[in-house]
Design goal:
By secondary structure, the protein is α+β, with helices and mostly antiparallel strands. The chain has a single domain, classed as Sortase (Sortase, Chain: A), CATH 2.40.260. Helices cover about 35% and strands about 25% of the residues.
Length: about 250
């Protein structure tokens, strides 16, 4: 009888220890994910900056007027094409996830398009093209069917980010941004400066809210709102190209 009781007690002890270990693992998982995301995002930002410096040095040595000119022209063509089609496919979520231009096809080392820097949010993240699962996990992502951010009239690059996810903040602190704040986008060719002009909260199906606005050079930051509600609304920060470009915040 004592042996049976001992075995029963031992069984429940093992069950309780296993449950405690599982709970601890679940509690630590967001911390582990945050540490890994932080490491990966910082690495990608630094790697992109190093690549840009190397690209500039190589272009100077070869006396090239513009590095990766074919890629730049392809992006220009894509942005101009968006104006002609009225961005009708923005209603289809899948169409916003497809990668419109593959960076490695043009000789770039990876698929990082650029770096988004927002001083008011203490944020610096890589930018990817196509708002699919992997790109949104690795940084910020430009919605396909919106402009790729190289600047220019009749452009609106809609850059999406999670409102915090698995312990990493992403665009969690987007409400820190106020009208007049600056955001910076560094691509292979230059760093573009945009200024916050308007902030809106809209329904997810309000496609008109993120369309290209004729004559304007824009970037629109987009994320879910409020946090942790499954995306009931969209929080939009409209930014226009700064007149005194280059001024830091």
């Amino acid at each position: 009888m004592k042996k049976r009781k001992f075995a029963w007690d031992l069984f429940w002890m093992v069950v309780l220890i296993t449950a405690a270990m599982a709970s601890a693992a679940l509690a630590l998982n967001p911390l582990i994910y945050k540490a890994e995301r932080t490491r990966q995002i910082r690495h990608d930002v630094k790697q992109f900056s190093r690549s840009v410096e190397e690209i500039k040095e190589e272009a100077e040595q070869k006396e090239e007027p513009m590095p990766y000119e074919e890629l730049y022209r392809s992006i220009q063509t894509y942005n101009e094409w968006l104006v002609t089609i009225s961005q009708g496919n923005l209603t289809n979520r899948v169409s916003t996830e497809i990668v419109p231009i593959t960076m490695t096809d043009y000789g770039l080392p990876d698929e990082v398009f650029g770096v988004l820097r927002i001083p008011a949010m203490d944020l610096e993240m890589p930018i990817y093209l196509g708002a699919n699962y992997d790109n949104l996990a690795n940084g910020a992502a430009v919605l396909t069917q919106t402009s790729i951010p190289i600047g220019g009239e009749n452009t609106n690059a809609v850059i999406a980010g999670h409102r915090g996810w698995n312990g990493y903040p992403y665009f969690l602190d987007i409400e820190n941004l106020q009208v007049g704040d600056l955001i910076f986008i560094k691509n292979v060719w230059e760093e573009l400066t945009y200024q916050v002009k308007t902030i809106r909260i809209v329904y997810p199906d309000d496609i008109d809210a993120i369309l290209i606005q004729p004559g304007k050079d824009m970037v629109t930051l987009m994320t879910c709102h409020p946090p942790n509600t499954g995306g009931r609304y969209r929080y939009l920060v409209y930014c226009e190209r700064a007149k005194n470009e280059g001024a830091d915040a």
